[in-house]
């Protein structure tokens, strides 16, 4: 007997996002699908320029305007997290709720961004959140500095 695919595959973020966009009245399309799949593959956030370049390297020309439009649609329905990294650069990553929640380290010299998470930090934020005059829905932490490569240069 061969391999039995008995466990139902939990649908990917790209599939959920495609469904949510179409439920929200946006039409499905190849460009949209390619953007969703690219974002879903990433461990962290990409800029619109990087999305454009990566798609082009896969022979998938999607205009910058289309990329920004899809980012806006995804943000509007809460499926995309916008990461402000300074210098006017904005990056985007899938909003996955609990799993994969992380924060960001940004190198101010080369612009590299990497994810980090820390249980103690999450506990501290939760504790502080309980004392704030705000019903806290989300949080993000961006730590700036020089990455190992730039610091050594
Ligand atoms: Zn990230
Ligand atoms: Zn760097």
Q: Which terms summarize this structure?
A:
single chain; alpha+beta; Dna Ligase, domain 1; 2 domains; globular; binds zinc ion
Task: Please characterize this protein's 3D structure.
The chain is built from 6 helices and 6 strands; from the N terminus they run ααβααββββαβα. Strand 4 (103-107) and strand 5 (113-116) form a beta hairpin. The mean pLDDT is 88. The strands form 2 sheets. Strands 1-3-2 form a 3-stranded antiparallel sheet. The protein has a 3-stranded mixed sheet with strand order 5-4-6, with no helix packed on it. The chain has helices spanning 13-23, 30-41, 48-57, 64-76, 119-129, 148-152; strands spanning 46-47, 80-84, 90-94, 103-107, 113-116, 142-145. The longest helix has 13 residues, at 64-76. Helix 1 packs antiparallel against helix 2 (30-41). Helices cover 41% and strands 16% of the residues. It starts with 12 loop residues before the first helix and ends with a helix. The protein folds into 2 domains: 13-97, Arc Repressor Mutant, subunit A; 102-153, Dna Ligase, domain 1 (2-Layer Sandwich), CATH 3.30.1490. The chain is of the alpha+beta class. One zinc ion is lined by residues 107, 109-110, 112, 146-147, 149-150.
How widely separated are the two ends? 57 Å
Name the strands of the widest sheet in spatial order.
1-3-2
Which residues form runs of ≥5 with pLDDT under 50? Answer: none
**Topology, number of strands:** 6
Shape: globular
- Percent of residues in beta strands? 15-25%
Radius of gyration, taken over Cα atoms and rounded to an integer in Å: 18 Å
Q: Helix content range of the residues, please? A: 40-55%
What name does the CATH topology of the largest domain carry?
Arc Repressor Mutant, subunit A
Overall structural class, as computed from helix and strand content, comes to alpha+beta
Mean pLDDT: 88
Q: What is the count of helical runs?
A: 6
Could you state the CATH homologous superfamily of the largest domain?
Winged helix-like DNA-binding domain superfamily/Winged helix DNA-binding domain
CATH class of the largest domain: Mainly Alpha
Major beta-sheet overview: 3 strands, antiparallel
Ligands in the model, by name, code or SMILES, are: zinc ion
Number of domains: 2
CATH architecture of the largest domain: Orthogonal Bundle
Order of helices and strands: HHEHHEEEEHEH
